[in-house]
Amino acid sequence: MGPGRSGGHAVWVVAASVLVAVASCSSPSKTTVTVSGAQAYAATTRARSAAIDMTTEVIDAKGRTSSEGSATGTYSWATRQGSFVAKIGPISGYHLITDEIIDGATTYTRPSATGTPPGGLRADLPSGWSEETWTTPIAPGLLDLLLAVIVPGGEGNTEVDDPAAVLAQVLSAATHVTGLGRQTIDGSVTTHYRAAVPMSTLDPGGTAVPLFGTGPVPVDYWLDGSDQLRLLHMTLTMKAPPARPGTVATTTSTTLAGDLGSRGSAGATAAPALDFPIHLVFADRISDYGVAVHLTIPPPSQIGSQATCSARGDGSSCYSSTSQATAPGR
Question: How far is the C-alpha of 20 from the C-alpha of 23, rounded, in Å?
């Protein structure tokens, strides 16, 4: 078998460059907050499963979308089982598609792609399915939960797919919550709330501060008449390109390929320049609560690599039958 860090990690590396689609809603009016976080958590948890549609977008000051990603499927947080199709792109005309099956502590991923990857990105993808079993998953922070949507269950983080777990972290981190009135989301009458979450709570390590500043981040969420989460939305704004060590950022535009470390390669198409500020938009839509979740586990003949993984410090270690691979922390 090959090294343990397989398709899931390859997708994660690419996904770090992508970030979500905002749902169109009617104009809200302010109202009083009437549903507690405990009520919403309990109601969402009781449903046991749902259809989940997670999306991300990178949008510049001129309203241009440079890249986008999505992960669509069904998931049961009661049994920790689900299946998703994740899509990332276009990145200079390159699209990455990953089928993922989550079965408790084990995930199966099968990536495919269309187009030519821009320079700096690996074009070779694992053949067949990759299997990872996590004995100790990485404990995700709130920013991980909100942005790691393109790899459902990635690195053992099934909390990414649990809407109640995400909502609970948002509400426990919020300094205050404001009710913004009734709105209809996907045919359901909901109440719109906005939580103010300090950046220091979103990113305790401070790695995102140079990109997004120190101010509180608004996280919007919508609860239906049963107090269940229907939509969660967040926007991070990068006002200027980050300064490189020993320099001061002076430009007002950048390219996605440049941010990925691309310096150009044969067959790669240059990414369009993006004008600041750049908005990284995340959304998580939940529907069909209680839906039955069906899995089709790949047979052994279709599994190209297997690994056993565990969290270690700020990263993770994975052991295959022949070697060990260590993944850096996010």
Answer: 10
